[in-house]
Design goal:
Blueprint (H helix, E strand, L loop, with lengths): L3 E2 L10 H13 L9 H21 L6 E4 L2 H15 L3 E5 L4 H9 L3 E3 L9 H8 L5 E7 L7 E2 L2 H11 L4 E5 L9 H6 L3 E5 L10 E5 L29 H35 L4 E2 L8 E2 L3 E6 L4 H10 L2 E2 L15 H5 L4 H4 L2 E5 L6 H17 L11
Parallel strand pairs: 1-13, 3-4, 3-5, 5-7, 7-8
Antiparallel strand pairs: 2-9, 6-11, 8-9, 10-12, 12-14
Helix pairs in contact: 1-8, 2-8, 3-4, 5-6, 8-12
């Protein structure tokens, strides 16, 4: 049976170069990077090499790169660590990833309204921030991982500093890393989160880029602290595979982005055309820039779980939104923030492409997705309950 893996926004397959680099480390570099013997020094060299690759990819100094266990830990370290170090609270946005929303709220901070729009308005951001005191860090998601909306990061960073003078700016670039200019993002940020498995590296490796001189309180205790060591009390990973994956991602981004955008557009036109009246693009008519790899639609009157199970049975991997919360397709908080009717919220569907996506996969998806949407009409209410 033909298949189509269209869940790259959740995790993209490992690039061959990254797999080879990771295999090399696993097979030939057994040492703990914090040790003193030759094997340990070999691991440390690979760790430093990986740090150099990440730093070069974003235009930072190697000493500004801190490796983490993933994007969630990077977000938590940035938000919690900065708020604690500056004796304040964090602000983010209700359409951000839970990895930013939950630590901000847990520390007494706030998730600001998106005012029903996919693209944040810098002027509203500045005004909303001005209502709060002691904002120590403002977190901005560069690309919404569910909708694919590219946020105006430079304008938002300026608005954040205007609305909350003295606050640090953290940019969650996890969903943006494969598609955006990371150097441009880093120019306006104090902190920036990345994740290896979103760019074709292994799972369980992330990074937080920390502007030199920025103080962070640790989020866990048990190991000596230094500017270039992992922030947790654990053996540091040797993220050579992630470094290689990010380097390769930067190199082929222009051609890959154009190719993927063309396939995404073909998929969008086909699904909307063949499931006319049932498949809805929530961003239709809104002036937004979209990352090339995400197609977000809502299936009217279709329950998300029924739809995902049907697509899985027909060989199409998709999601209803973020895949980090649990194995169950929970209702999307991002879609709810856009204030759409219940019958559309229930049918949220994210189809996301990546470096390995083929035209044959798009053909298969077009044969499966519109039919599934039409067949499952009526599995969710189409109007809000009175």
């Amino acid at each position: 049976m033909p298949t189509a893996y269209l869940d790259h926004a959740a995790s993209t397959p490992m690039r061959p170069e990254a797999l080879a680099a990771m295999t090399e480390v696993l097979a030939a570099v057994p040492g703990n990077p914090s040790g003193q013997h030759g094997w340990a020094r070999g691991a440390r060299r690979r760790l430093d090499d990986a740090r150099d690759l990440v730093a070069a990819a974003v235009g930072a100094r190697p000493s500004e790169v801190v490796f983490t266990s993933g994007g969630t830990e990077a977000d938590n370290l940035a938000i919690v660590g900065a708020a604690r170090a500056r004796a304040g609270v964090a602000a983010c946005f209700e359409t951000d990833h839970h990895a930013a929303i939950e630590p901000a709220r847990a520390g007494g901070g706030v998730a600001l309204s998106a005012h029903g729009r996919g693209r944040l308005d810098p002027e509203r951001v500045a005004a909303d921030l001005g209502r709060f005191e002691a904002v120590a860090v403002v977190s901005i998601c560069a690309v919404n991982n569910e909708l694919g909306v590219v946020q105006p990061v430079a304008e938002l960073a300026e608005a954040a500093r205007r609305g909350a003078p003295g606050a640090l700016v953290h940019v969650d670039a996890v969903a943006a890393a494969g598609w955006a200019d990371l150097e441009a993002i880093w120019e306006v940020a104090d902190l920036m989160s990345l994740s290896g498995h979103k760019v074709g590296g292994p799972k369980g490796i992330g990074a937080l880029v920390v502007r030199e001189g920025t103080a962070l309180e640790p989020t866990s205790l048990g190991a000596p602290r230094s500017a270039s060591s992992a922030p947790a009390p654990r053996t540091s990973p040797v993220p050579w595979g992630s470094g290689v994956a990010l380097e390769r991602t930067i190199q082929d981004r222009p051609d890959r982005a154009a190719r993927v955008a063309a396939m995404r557009d073909r998929l969008r036109a086909g699904v909307l055309g063949r499931a006319a009246g049932r498949a809805v693009d929530l961003l239709e008519g809104e002036a937004v820039e979209l990352a090339p790899h995400v197609l977000h639609l809502c299936a009217r009157g279709v329950h998300r779980e029924a739809l995902l199970l049907r697509l899985d049975a027909d060989g199409v991997a998709a999601s209803a939104g973020s895949s980090c919360a649990s194995g169950a397709p929970q209702r999307s908080h991002v879609v709810e923030a856009l204030c759409v009717p219940v019958g559309l919220r229930e049918g949220a569907l994210r189809l996301s492409l990546g470096w390995s996506t083929t035209e044959e996969e798009i053909d298969h998806a077009l044969a499966v997705v519109p039919e599934a949407i039409c067949d499952l009409a009526g599995t969710a209410p189409e109007e809000p309950a009175p």
